[in-house]
Amino acid sequence: MAAMPFAALTLTALIFAAAPAHAVAPLAEVPTLAPMIAEVSPAVVNIATSGTENVRSNPLFDDPFFKRFFERRGREFPQRKRQVHGQGSGVVIDAAEGHVITNHHVVEDADEIIVTLGDGREFEAELIGSDPEVDIALLQIPAEDLSTVTVGDSSRLRVGDFVVAIGNPFGLSQTVTSGIVSGLGRNDLGIESYEDFIQTDAAINRGNSGGALVNLRGELIGINTAILAPGGGSVGIGFAIPSNLALSLTGQILEHGKVRRGRLGVYIQDLDARLAEAFGLDNRSGALISRVEPDSPAEEAGLQSGDVVLSVDHRKVDSASDLRNIIGLMRVGQEARINFWRKGRMMSVDILLRERRMRQVAGAEFHHRLRGALLKELKPDEDDGDEGVQVAEVEEGSPAADAGLRGGDIIVSVNRHAVASLQQMREAVGLERGRLLLLIKRDESAFYLALR
Question: Which amino acids are annotated catalytic?
Fold first, then answer.
């Protein structure tokens, strides 16, 4: 090999000397979510709340002796007021109207709601309305020059899609985490009354509630709501309300001031292997109708006891919980195509859903531990003037029966809030997520039941 001239060697050395020790690729070639996050983040806000709650003045009143003493004498436990504060997140969905969507549990019982924007501006928010059964609330702030987020179609999500959660966990300034969609249509978790969650492994922590779950196009596809973690921190199992559902509910809140749910008018149960065989089914999928209410949409459409509902509007029904969630998330006046199995034949019928009557309701409408109980409102002239919600019936072997409820019991308070109607009970159940503390009057005695 011929020797390289000295001049060439010198030039080569100069070229290598001029090059940096660690060459860095151009920024344009580095994968990053920064542009998308910069566009979406201004629409995600911090929510701070303040309010008061009743607390017992002395821990001795947790003692069973003192409980019995006060209950027997019809006295209230001594209480005092305590100032409480909360933190959460929200998403601006309408810049012109100043509408902000968040979770119901973020703003419930708040005397003051302060929304802080990404640019530092603060506004006192007005609560337009909320739906505790799905955990959605709609706020309005008197702000100009708001940033908003494009709302995506959550029905197009697939397991494995990349997602980003944006919120304000633990009172920190805006925080971003990423992950994938781990599951769709999650229900029967006992978190809310009606559930149709997106599950994600993007880290969601306390304070993220009400924040945005977006896809990689920066479209809002969910409202971060809950985590499944015994220690209270993120373990990669988080849940978000799908954007399609959230927008449908807030639309009803704007139109009616509340959410008006469709009602089918049936009592339903899951199928076990024996029931499936008895009704001529090859598997246990479906919701078995055990009873049809008189004058209900189901009766008018011809549904009967013993029918097994297999799908609603092409959505498969695997269990009684599936049917309850699907119908409960539909609007009043909406028509539903019900496919069902009757005596060896597949049949279908269109049913126009009506608003639910609140005189008599299945306990599962309130809490999964009340499944099997039938609840009704007391008339003013019933039961010697007692106020409360009466347990009309309890199915033997049901969760309600296992919890200790009996027919004739009167529920006087829920989570330490007096209830005189089914609507008041529904609101009180939503005050403590997953927990239920009932004060029961039975004959001449009164006692507490704690359910989880």
Answer: 105, 135, 209
